[in-house]
UniProtKB/TrEMBL annotation, chain A:
Catalytic activity line of the entry: hydrogencarbonate + H(+) = CO2 + H2O
Name used for this protein in its record: Carbonic anhydrase
GO BP of this protein: carbon utilization
Annotated positions binding Zn(2+): C87, D89, H147, C150
Organism listed in the record: Acacia crassicarpa
A GO molecular-function descriptor: zinc ion binding
Cofactor stoichiometry and binding remark: Binds 1 zinc ion per subunit.
PROSITE patterns to which the protein is assigned, alphabetical: PROK_CO2_ANHYDRASE_1, PROK_CO2_ANHYDRASE_2
From TrEMBL, chain B:
Biased composition, class Low complexity, residue ranges: 7-18
Record: residues binding Zn(2+): C66, D68, H125, C128
Name of the molecule in the record: Carbonic anhydrase
Record carries keyword Lyase: yes
InterPro entries tied to this protein: Beta_CA_cladeB, Carbonic_anhydrase, Carbonic_anhydrase_CS, Carbonic_anhydrase_sf
Keyword list, A-Z: Lyase, Metal-binding, S-nitrosylation, Zinc
Reactions catalysed according to its record: hydrogencarbonate + H(+) = CO2 + H2O
GO biological process, one term: carbon utilization
Species of provenance: Acacia crassicarpa (northern wattle)
Top-rank taxon, per record: Eukaryota
Names of the cofactor(s): Zn(2+)
Stretches for region Disordered: 1-23
Length: 255, 244
């Protein structure tokens, strides 16, 4: 393919589409993506120092200096009511999507907003954040937010059945939500790969919520009703936000 | 308990259930109005931009910040949707490659090798609870998950106790916040696919420190070229700036 001209590449694509017309939609989406990437690649590189300086001075002037009471209190201590798990994706920051202001939410962001089951050593960063938020900050709600077009979920769904992986860390991480992938594949009614990914985005949130209950301090707080768990899915293609409760009935076992 | 006592307890239970239901309902309404406010003020007003973003994200920054509710980089540095791929963990720690898989290095791998970001910015901050826990730890082995994680910053604590031994505990914590941040910058270079891109000038590594008491932001950039020419493993920085 090296050295192939643009015309040759387009001719090859047109030939394929004339044989397989159903690929038209996929081709259109990918061409649009390619166009966006190429326009961005050609754009002027940003001056990172200038970008940070502008952002900070604007925050200081428009927010910090105009809310001395709030920021004065926050300088002493934080008492957020929420612990939020959101994906690292640049498009889904909860401060935008749910308008969280400074002080409102302790936020953890990782690939596909996943929560591994309780473990003292493996992926201890997640446990540390949950322990800090629940035991020290005493948050009242934990919310796990999945989202549309999640690269992490797509990566999970793309791992072949024989389990071969090509990344160093990414695929091991996303396999935390293998139960979601299995469920979605078992329940499938002939949906496209993209639809399966959307289902998996939501099911993975439920797997993470279930994993939250393997943390003893979470289980205790939920049983005492001082902590609520919520699942959510932000769809930035359609501009919608789904929010749900897990129906948890925790009752002490008879001794 | 006589019948009247039983009735009273029953009424109390009902009242509790109603209050819980009200609380849950209020929370749902609150979250709903937050999202609708975002949709009206940002999403609908920039529909074409959001539709383009829905196709692909091309952030130029990868930001690693603390989960602390007061330091979200979207607030303090005004990052808009699409600008910054973000990791948030306790005490904005980056562990070295040899420590094995963490949630942080999975995200690093994605940002550097797939998204090909041009800048990594690690942001530390004042009054960090995670750093305070690190500085307060009694020994390595403990049942606390928090301590199992922050112990990764052990070397920063040792350096702090040497360099800042004359200062009080709060001042030592502040020193450690920056020391740990610098250790994280050096740990980034232990990832071969990061060092390769930095050495080619395709990726810059920056440290940032947000002080929310006096509201200032300090920033510096890792000077890879100078580190190589001087043959040192110690951190050398350039382009240090403070805005206050």
């Amino acid at each position: 393919m090296a050295g192939q001209s643009y015309e040759e590449a387009i001719a090859e694509l047109n030939k394929l589409l004339s044989e397989k017309a159903d690929l038209g939609g996929v081709a259109a989406a990918k061409i649009k993506q390619l166009t966006a990437e190429l326009s961005a690649a050609g754009s002027k590189p940003i001056n990172s120092d200038e970008r940070i300086r502008t952002g900070f001075t604007q925050f200081k002037k428009e927010k910090f200096e105009k809310n001395p009471d709030l920021f004065g209190k926050l300088a002493e201590a934080q008492s957020p009511k929420f612990l939020v798990f959101a994906c690292s994706d640049s498009r889904v920051c909860p401060s935008h999507v749910l308008n969280f202001q400074p002080g409102e939410a302790f936020v953890v962001r990782n690939i596909a907003s996943m929560i591994p089951p309780y473990d003292q050593t493996k992926y201890s960063g997640t446990g540390a954040a949950i322990e800090y938020a629940v035991v020290h900050l005493k948050v009242e709600n934990i919310m796990v937010i999945g989202h549309s077009c999640c690269g992490g979920i797509k990566g999970l769904m793309s791992i072949p059945d024989d389990g071969t992986t090509s990344s160093e860390f990414i695929e091991s991480w996303v396999q935390i939500c293998n139960p979601a992938k299995s469920k979605v594949k078992a329940d499938t009614k002939g949906q496209s790969f993209s639809e399966l990914c959307t289902n998996c985005e939501k099911e993975a949130v439920n797997v993470s919520l279930g994993n939250l209950l393997t943390y003893p301090f979470v289980r205790d707080a939920v049983a005492k009703k001082t902590l609520a768990l919520k699942g959510a899915h932000y769809d930035f293609v359609n501009g919608s936000f789904d929010l749900w409760d897990l129906d948890l009935k925790i009752s002490p076992l008879p001794l | 308990m006589g019948p009247s006592g039983f009735t009273q307890q029953q009424e109390n239970n009902n009242q509790e259930t109603v209050t819980e239901a009200e609380k849950g309902h209020d929370l749902f309404n609150d979250l709903k109005s937050r999202f609708l406010s975002f949709k009206k003020n940002k999403y609908m007003g920039n529909l074409e931009h959001f539709q383009n973003l829905a196709q692909v994200q091309l952030p130029k920054f990868m930001v690693i910040a603390c989960g602390d509710s007061r330091v979200c980089p979207s607030n303090i540095l005004g990052f808009q949707p699409g600008e910054a791929f973000m990791i948030r963990n306790v005490a904005n720690l980056v562990t070295p490659f040899e420590n094995g898989p963490t949630e942080t290095n999975a995200a690093l791998e994605f940002a550097v090798t797939t998204l090909r970001v041009e800048n990594i910015l690690v942001i530390g901050h004042s009054c960090c609870g995670g750093i305070r826990a690190l500085m307060s730890m009694q020994d390595d082995a403990s049942g606390s998950l928090l301590e199992s994680w922050v112990v990764a910053g052990k070397n920063a604590r040792i350096k702090t106790e040497t360099a800042a031994s004359g200062l009080d505990f709060d001042q030592q914590c502040r020193h450690c916040e920056k020391e740990s941040l610098n250790h994280s910058l050096l740990n980034l270079l232990t990832y071969p696919w990061i060092e390769e891109r930095v050495s080619k000038g395709e990726l810059l590594i920056h440290g940032g420190y947000y002080d929310f008491i006096e509201c200032s932001f300090e920033k510096w950039t890792l000077d890879y070229l100078k580190m190589k020419t001087e043959g040192t493993d110690m951190l050398v920085v350039k382009d240090r700036m403070v805005w206050c």
